[in-house]
Design a protein that fits this description.
- This protein has helices at 47-63, 79-86, 101-111, 131-141, 187-190, 205-215, 234-239, 243-254, 256-263, 267-306, 340-353, 375-383, 390-396, 443-456, 459-475; strands at residues 37-43, 67-73, 91-95, 116-121, 125-126, 145-153, 163-164, 172-175, 177-178, 182-186, 219-229, 312-318, 324-330, 400-402, 428-430.
- It is an alpha/beta fold and 480 residues long.
- Strands 1, 2, 3, 4, 5, 6, 8, 10 and 11 form a nine-stranded mixed beta sheet that branches. Strands 7-9 form a two-stranded antiparallel sheet. Strands 12-13 form a two-stranded antiparallel ribbon.
- The chain starts with 36 loop residues before the first strand and ends in a 5-residue tail after the last helix.
């Protein structure tokens, strides 16, 4: 989201609301680098709301080692003076009454240097002192998520429907959008989002924000295990039965493009995509096997004549939901070659990424050069022709034309938890990783690209990847 910095007025230091007020007690700790988390409190005539919520917000921010940033949307009451008295050491940016959430987030992303921004409306408050830290920790544990939002409860202890579609009862759910009353978002992701252009779109700003992130392959998480309190009651008023849905329906009718994006994310649309994908898999693999049968026979003969052993190499791989299947390839190595070389190489790639210092080793995914490869095997790998027998895996339903690279079982023994997200779909003959440099990418980059593909997946995106694969095969980029 690009910040429109020209209308933003940051008050001079003589104004209490933005003045860096000295803390009540002297801080004797050594100065640290800029905090990785900043709590952004969005206010609009919120003096009474802050009187209820600011204490809990400040305590939770302190627990998370986060600073406070006030973004005020044209308050005319005593909000500014209240913040100066009760949030000492915080910063403030004061916008106009015509500004909304999009402008607030844009300004927050521009003036903050933190890695994660925790957006909080003044009407809600954490139920526990560790809640802000829990939101940030969740994002750290799920790098493919751009946003994490807590559950919100009303004063009558009812759970408010602040996430859509309705989340399940698991510890957290992947949802399409959340209300922005409380959420943690990565600043880097926020900077990629374009602000809403129409002034009439105020009630779909949150929806538009989340859909833009989803289109970029990022995820929105609803944390059922973290609950906040709707202290001011305004969130409850927004999401009561028929109130939100009627208003949201009217806004979606005014913005058919946004409504269309949302409809493509429904379960029915996903089921239709799966049917279209499977039909395309069967048709394309059948036609290609028929047309390429002379080439398949010629390659098989070349492999047999070049070295001893079968022409087809069968290997146990993990597909959808990490279920094992037999994957077929033309053999490119000496028959009976030791797999320990590749096993150690892959383990080092995964483990090195998880070192305490956070260093990333830039090394190709495959062993290169690999002494086990035969003469004809080098040609097949360079041209990607060794992958052609996987057309039979596609015909059987083990794989799809587009998906992730299926790992060997020994690879997953070192997986961090979030890597398993890539098993939510079928493996593919090609995919986003395969057209993005392949073996020139690190292992973690491969996993991130696999997860991004499943979040962005549409039948048009699949066709684009298939078309791009042709160019990648011709150039041989990343093939070893």
């Amino acid at each position: 989201m690009e910040a429109q910095v020209s209308p933003v007025q940051i008050e001079p230091v003589t104004t209490p609301a933005v003045e860096a007020v000295a803390p009540a007690h002297e801080d004797t700790r050594a100065p640290a680098r800029a905090p990785s988390t900043e709590v952004v409190v969005v206010t609009r005539n919120s003096e009474a709301d802050l009187a209820r919520s600011l204490g809990a917000i400040t305590d939770a921010a302190t627990e998370a080692n986060a600073s406070l940033l006030f973004i005020d949307l044209g308050s005319t009451d005593g909000t500014r003076a209240f913040a100066a008295r009760h949030a000492r050491g915080s910063r403030g940016v004061w916008l106009t009454a015509e500004d909304g959430l999009a402008e607030a987030l844009s300004v927050a992303a521009a003036v903050s240097k933190a890695e994660v921004l925790v957006i909080v409306r003044s009407t809600v408050q954490p139920s526990d002192i560790a809640d802000i830290a829990r939101l940030v920790t969740h994002l750290e544990a799920h790098p493919y998520a751009a946003m994490a939002a807590p559950a919100l409860r009303a004063h009558d202890d009812s759970l408010l429907t602040t996430a859509h579609p309705e989340p399940d009862m698991a510890r957290f759910s992947r949802v399409e959008w959340v209300l922005a009353d409380a959420l943690a978002i990565r600043r880097a992701d926020l900077l990629t989002v374009r602000p809403a252009r129409q002034r009439t779109a105020r009630w779909v700003e949150e929806l538009d924000l989340c859909l833009q992130l989803r289109r970029r392959g990022r995820e929105v998480h609803y944390l059922r295990a973290v609950e906040w309190l709707d202290a001011g009651g305004r969130t409850a008023a927004r999401v009561r039965p028929h109130h939100l849905s009627r208003r949201m329906l009217l806004q979606l009718l005014r913005h058919p493009r946004t409504a269309g994006r949302l409809l493509t994310r429904t379960r029915l649309a996903t089921a239709a995509l799966n049917v279209v994908s499977r039909t395309l898999d069967v048709l394309v693999s059948s036609v290609m096997i028929t047309l390429l049968s002379p080439l398949l026979v010629a390659i098989a003969l070349a492999v047999r004549l070049d070295s001893e052993g079968p022409a087809i190499f069968r290997q146990r791989r993990l597909g959808r939901y990490a279920r094992a299947f037999q994957m077929y390839k033309f053999r490119t190595m000496r028959h009976g070659a030791d797999s320990a070389i590749h096993q150690d190489h892959v383990r080092n790639m995964i483990v090195n990424r998880l070192c305490a210092d956070g260093s990333v080793s830039r090394q190709v995914f495959k062993v290169h050069p690999d002494p086990r490869i035969t003469r004809i095997g080098r040609v097949l790998r360079r041209s990607s022709l060794d992958e052609l027998p996987q057309l039979f895996n596609i015909l059987r339903g083990d794989m799809s034309l587009v998906g992730f690279r299926p790992p060997i079982p020994y690879e997953v023994t070192e997986y961090p938890d979030w890597y398993f997200r890539r098993f939510d779909g079928k493996p593919g003959l090609t995919g986003l990783w395969q057209v993005s440099g392949r073996n020139e990418r690190s292992y973690e980059e491969m996993v991130r690209l696999d997860i991004e593909y499943f979040n962005r997946r549409t039948w048009l995106f699949d066709l684009w990847l298939l078309a791009k694969t042709v160019g990648v095969v011709i150039t041989g980029r990343g093939a070893y």
